[in-house]
Design goal:
The chain has 27 helices and nine strands. By secondary structure, it is an alpha/beta fold. Strands 3-4-2-1-5-8-9 form a seven-stranded mixed sheet. The model has no long low-confidence stretch (mean pLDDT about 90).
């Protein structure tokens, strides 16, 4: 009866979006998704707004027309990039079959709505599904800050850390600030110093996040307690929790460390601060390493021991920002999306022999053979002279847990080999895709959309790709095309000139 009345209303008021929308909703409830889509589409054309669009997308998705639903939502996102609603719908639509694209939009959603816990949960969930623990950890930190009591988020943090080879003993580094401070003040040397100074009540208040109470109790403590190393430790933690400037917090930790009888926890926490604040692999990380050694020597051995893995991971991440000889990302494709395989190349004295390792399949080996032959054949034109005859070339994929295959790796392999032979560094965060022929031509490849989305998600900055894939690049989401430097090439010579120009550009840091 209700459907009959709604259909009658549409007949009587065909230009009224509300009547169309009401009928579409009723048809949706009756699982007549095709009919619901038809009337939702008309309601949208008549100005039905967000409700009509959402219903249309839902009906299309359930009627097997996901592509049309996706295109509609993508158009909405392009027109209103700050509107969180269509982007959230797009994430839900893409999650099952295109998780990389879903992750891309989920990350954008966290920018538009940084306080939305579900957006951060979506990022963490999609990172786990697409095996991107390095992207997951920052998202999980934000999610835990919004929901510190959620045990599932804590478990997810441990899972992401394990995937990165980080020990559970240092999980406090990824805890919310208050929890991190509470764990630090519960360390053996900190607890002993606080007990001796009679300041455990202050530490307990701080661990509960009751900063005003902690500050008040510290102010009314005895003069001897306020002058102790334990009090300096508490002040440094308080400054950090109050969000004071990094330099001010660092100064407080240095002051605490300089106090007579400073506990090993002070050295550990200053090391943690330097580790977190480091923006380059240099003196700050070296000092952090020395501080961890000092903490271990002063009673915090078990906790400090795990910091070596943290330092190694931090150095690895920061090293990606340095140009290096023979290092490039190889863009690949798999049914769930794209991926970036790190490749390293070295030239060693020998007889001009090629070796390719890192779980490489037959087509991947074929691509390496072609790349090597191109370098040998074009050695004079590429400025390699007799190097290819006097040096062996070893190409190695460092992500040995993943199998590699396909001819599209040819361009990246060739560039890595050129860099290794010439000892000219490749730009930081560079990746490439493209099949190379024996004449040095760069041929088009498949999966360009997925590869470039993956490149963006993995922090790549510059990508070389075949010029004949321009149409694929033109269809990329603006979130990708606007943030990657995309260089189209037709030949290996052209690609080599492009990377040399990029490596020589001002601001490029070399290793």
């Amino acid at each position: 009866m209700l459907l009959t009345e709604l259909k009658r209303a549409v007949v009587l008021r065909p230009a009224e979006p509300g009547a169309r929308l009401a009928l579409a909703e009723a048809l949706f409830q009756e699982r007549d998704f095709r009919g619901a889509a038809e009337h939702a589409r008309r309601a949208l054309d008549l100005g039905g707004g967000e409700a009509a669009r959402r219903l249309l997308c839902g009906a299309w998705a359930r009627d097997g027309r996901q592509v049309e639903a996706r295109k509609l939502l993508e158009e909405c996102v392009r027109q209103s990039p700050q509107d969180a609603s269509p982007r959230a719908e797009l994430v839900a639509l893409l999650e099952e079959h295109r998780p990389d694209d879903a992750l891309l939009h989920a990350l954008e959603l966290t920018v538009a709505t940084p306080g939305d816990l579900e957006a951060w949960r979506a990022v963490a969930r999609l990172c786990e599904r697409t095996n991107r623990p390095a992207v997951a950890l920052p998202a999980l930190r934000r999610a835990r800050a919004l929901a510190p009591e959620d045990p599932r988020l804590a478990e997810s943090v441990l899972g992401a850390r394990a995937a990165l080879g980080l020990p559970a003993t240092t999980a406090m580094l990824d805890a919310p600030p208050v929890e991190q401070a509470a764990q630090a003040l519960a360390l053996p040397t900190a607890r002993a110093a606080l007990t001796q100074a009679g300041l455990m009540a202050v530490a307990e208040a701080l661990g509960r996040g009751a900063l005003p109470d902690a500050k008040r109790q510290l102010v009314v403590a005895s003069a001897a307690a306020r002058a102790s190393a334990a009090a300096a430790l508490l002040r440094a933690e308080l400054l950090g929790l109050e969000g004071r400037p990094s330099a001010q917090v660092e100064a407080a930790w240095r002051a605490a460390l300089g106090m007579p009888g400073a506990p090993g926890a002070a050295a550990l926490r200053l090391g943690d601060h330097l580790l977190e604040a480091a923006r380059s692999a240099g003196p700050a990380l070296d000092e952090a390493q020395a501080l961890y050694a000092r903490a271990a020597a002063n009673g915090e051995g078990p906790v400090a021991a795990g910091r070596e893995a943290e330092l190694a991971e931090r150095r690895r991440v920061l090293a990606r920002d340095l140009s290096a000889v023979g290092r490039v990302g190889v863009l690949g494709w798999h049914p769930q999306g794209g991926h970036v395989s790190p490749l390293e190349a070295v030239a060693v004295p020998g007889r001009g022999v090629l070796r390719c390792s890192g779980r490489v399949g037959p087509e991947g080996q074929e691509a390496a053979d072609v790349a090597f032959s191109v370098l040998r054949a074009r050695a004079p034109a590429l400025g390699l002279g007799e190097l290819v005859a006097r040096y062996d070339l070893h190409l190695h994929y460092t992500d040995t847990e993943v199998g590699k295959d396909g001819l599209s790796s040819g361009l990246a392999l060739s560039l890595a080999g050129l860099s290794a032979y010439s000892q000219r560094p490749l730009p930081a965060r560079l990746a490439a895709t493209g099949e190379v022929t024996l004449s040095g031509e760069v041929r088009p490849v498949g999966g360009v959309h997925e590869k470039l989305v993956a490149a963006y998600l993995e922090g790549i900055r510059c990508v070389l790709y075949p010029r004949r894939n321009l149409q694929d690049v033109a269809a990329l989401p603006p979130e990708v095309s606007g943030r990657l430097r995309l260089i189209a090439v037709d030949t290996l010579d052209e690609a080599w000139r492009a990377v040399r120009a990029a490596a020589d550009a001002p601001g490029e840091t070399r290793r």
